[in-house]
Amino acid sequence: xxxxxxxxxxxxxxxxVSCGTTNTVPIxxxxxxxxxxxxxxxxxxxxxxxxxxxxxxxxxxxxxxxxVKRVGTNLANAVVNFLNENGMQNDVQNxxxxxxxxxxxxxxxxxxPGGLIVVYEGLLPxxxxxxxxxxxxxxEIAHAVARHSAEQMSKQIQQQYGVQGAGVLASILGVGDNTxxxxxxxxxxxxxxxxxxxxxxxxxxxxxxxxxxxxMAGYDPSVAVSFWxxxxxxxxNKSTAEFLSDHPSDAxxxxxxxxxxxxxxxxxxPKTTTTTTKKTTTKKTTTKKKK
Length: 291
Prior knowledge:
Layout: H1 2-18, E1 21-24, E2 31-34, H2 38-55, H3 62-85, H4 89-92, E3 98-102, E4 109-112, E5 116-120, H5 124-127, H6 130-145, H7 148-164, H8 166-174, H9 178-188, H10 200-216, H11 223-234, H12 250-265
Parallel strand pairs: 3-5
Antiparallel strand pairs: 1-2, 4-5
Helix pairs in contact: 3-6, 6-10, 10-12, 11-12
Cofactor: Zn(2+)
GO biological process, one term: proteolysis involved in protein catabolic process
Organism: Xylanibacter ruminicola (Prevotella ruminicola)
């Protein structure tokens, strides 16, 4: 009986490895196994984003709204250019970059798959400037580019298959269209992108990529250290142990960012602005000294 059970579980493992696709995260080069397609994830993401925006109250601050859209667009353009220049043109079509500022006092921002981003007004007193806002938006954009949502969904599906064991094996073998099985498994998770928590590894990777994306867009990545120090102070220096949290501790995050800064600086090209000034002619007047 033990041999039969071992054989069945081994077959499940083999099927899990053979299902899905292998994706490479840009810049970090990390390999990830995805069991859900971009189409499945983007469809769910768009639906949930639209539902959220129906009940959300957009900011009435025109200046701040324009800033969020401007910084977000600069980052998105830089990322798209990078992907196009590095043979990842197929990835570009998955994004419908959207940046909205919501009237909410939370110091928060998030991004759904496909580049659907929301910033809460409560975050702006902490970012203080466009460069620090770019650090936040770069981090959120990185979650989308690195397909972290699809990765978390895939892990949930794998866990579900593992628990079901032999039943899953029989189900997979009996279903011709594996996409249906995966879709049902994803639906069974009660998926909500708003409540989806990334692992600490994903958060670290988003910090890493976000620094570089901000630098690509012409924003100084070094401001990330002071921003996260302000964010830490604003959060009240919560004492939750790092191993109990999905996010790295503030101290660990800042230390990691300092380590990545030399790499990010290689991508940094400050934005240059050209100004035209009218030529002015100054007349010099000389006075003869009386003898």
